[in-house]
Amino acid sequence: MAETMRAALDDGTGQYVVQDVAMPEMYNGAAVVRIRQAGICGSDLHMTTSRTEAQTMASGHEIAGEILELPKGEHNLQVGDRVAIEMIGAGRACLSCHFCRYGQWKHCMNLAPDTGGGFAQYMTRKPAGLFKLPDSMDWIDGGLVEPMAVSVHGLRYARMQPDDVVGVVGSATIGLSAIAAAKAFGARTVIASARHAHQAEAAKKMGADIVVGSEPGEFEAACDDATGGLGADFVVESVGGYQAESFGQAIRATRNQGTMLYLGGMKIPLEVDLFEPLIREIRIQSVICYGVIDGRHDYEVAIDLLESGEIPYREIVTHQVELENIQDGFDAAWDKTSGSIKVHVNI
């Protein structure tokens, strides 16, 4: 195998330069994967804006690829298998600490070193983080397993119930997967907000029954109207980022004793009035990434949903670029007037 590979690294100014770098570190128990598809996540955009120094290792975590090497041991994988890669938790987990023993690998206390992400040609990760793709799923589908698993984990961990009225603040990648997962899990009605027309159209395709704009109070009013003034049973905040309004929207749209799922990931400290959710007994549930719930990993559930053919989630991939042109992909991901929802990098 070659000693170097092509990888895209932020030069510290927000510009991605594709260059030759050393192959990822091999360590005991690691597999080698040839990366084929990587999605540009909203968190990749946020990290780009906050980064002040040049990267020395590729990022990117929405990944699918082909296994080239496997370590010795018992696992249900073979060289040549096409896999979605859970690189953050299971792919680095020790598999024996307190959290690993019940499948919460994101919280592993003895993570293996991070050897680099998906904006590169190769990756090393433990087989526990490699989830085989069915023959019916292509690389585009494989690159969408991770963002689908984020919402699957959130809804399962926060115990969304069949017949719930579900509200989703925001209709970007994670909001859209939350809509699709909520409908698949039996939501009676899904109300979504969308800032852009192409996001609103995608929300309807994912199964949203009611889609409104992003004007102040519009989403909350829609949740009230759909429930006779009660508010939604379960509300997902999927926006995150650098403004706090979506967090307050989600709380206000939730009924008394309902659940507000904090899924988006705020990048700044918030000033939040917690007295209202206190007196209304709203459960505010935070979640991160994925794990095992009720005996199944969220990636397995996400793969089942995507394989079913009942969710047109692959249609959110509006742009594809080659690794050598990854900066064009980041530019398109930033510019929503381009019609972008999800940008994929072919590697």
Outline the structure in words.
This protein has 347 residues and is an alpha/beta fold. The chain folds into two domains: 4-147 and 292-346, Medium-chain alcohol dehydrogenases, catalytic domain (Quinone Oxidoreductase, Chain A, domain 1), CATH 3.90.180; 159-286, Rossmann fold (3-Layer(aba) Sandwich), CATH 3.40.50.720. It contains ten helices and 17 strands. The strands form four sheets. Strands 3, 4, 5, 6, 7, 16 and 17 form a seven-stranded mixed beta sheet that branches. A six-stranded parallel beta sheet has the order 10-9-8-11-12-13, sandwiched between helices. Strands 1-2 form a two-stranded antiparallel ribbon. The longest helix has 13 residues, at 145-157. The chain starts with a strand and ends with a strand.
Query: Segments where pLDDT lies below 50 for 5+ residues?
Result: none
- Integer count of domains: 2
N-to-C SSE string, H for helix and E for strand: EEEHEEEEHHEHEHEHEHEHEEEHEHE
Rg computed from alpha carbons, rounded to a whole number of angstroms: 20 Å
Q: Count up the helices.
A: 10
> How much is the average pLDDT?
96
Report the CATH C-level class of the largest domain. Alpha Beta
Number of strands: 17
Structural class: alpha/beta
By CATH, the superfamily of the largest domain comes out as Medium-chain alcohol dehydrogenases, catalytic domain
> What would you call the shape?
globular
CATH-derived architecture of the largest domain: Alpha-Beta Complex
What name is given to the CATH topology of the largest domain? Quinone Oxidoreductase, Chain A, domain 1
